């Protein structure tokens, strides 16, 4: 059971690192596991050129990761070795790897920090807002994946899956999310009201295993817009998909972000996932 738990979580983390690298083109993505003694172990990585950071253990509070854990907030530096907001116990390893700009976020499940998600580049460039948004979205999606893994293990269904040695990994769960979004778009194009309601009911069933009590109610149209955003559609593309105007899409997004307390479209998607409105 423990071996299966570790494997499921490792697959989710690996999938998140791969997805982040693909979405942003960022050369280095890493995950640091937070240990019981508050050290961070760089346990998974993609794009490192040297072994300097591989399997590195960071002391509590050290470097970017340590500050992330201490503050429970995102931390970014554009010149690591000169940054005055972090400590510098691991400058030698950073210099050996040749990293300059790094951004890191906490991965929090059930209010506990499980680890730190990193993205970095080997050149002295500042990471833009779009990259930071993607890192944030990836961290929130990974939180959902790890939470789902934990929920499945706590339920009878999770026990059955563990006995059979099979649970959805991160990539498979992402496929479920994509299917959910596309199914909502299909329902939006169906003119028969009865059939449309049946399709929407299927969408609800896809998220019901991880649904929590919702204090925020989103309308069907608001969920449709969020489903488009989850697929990476722009406002114009979402408008074309839904057969409405781009300004109407913006209006729905503003309403959703206000209800969910989100500041960006990506934060809204992740907030909707946390309340079980999206898978």
Automatic annotation (TrEMBL):
Keyword DNA-binding attributed: yes
Keywords: DNA-binding, Transcription, Transcription regulation
Signal peptide stretch: none
Domain HTH luxR-type, chain residue ranges per copy: 211-276
Entries under SUPFAM superfamilies matching the protein: C-terminal effector domain of the bipartite response regulators, GAF domain-like
GO MF: DNA binding
Cross-referenced NCBIfam families: transregRamA
Protein name in the entry: DNA-binding CsgD family transcriptional regulator
Species whose genome carries this gene: Corynebacterium guangdongense
Phylogenetic placement of the source organism: Bacteria, Bacillati, Actinomycetota, Actinomycetes, Mycobacteriales
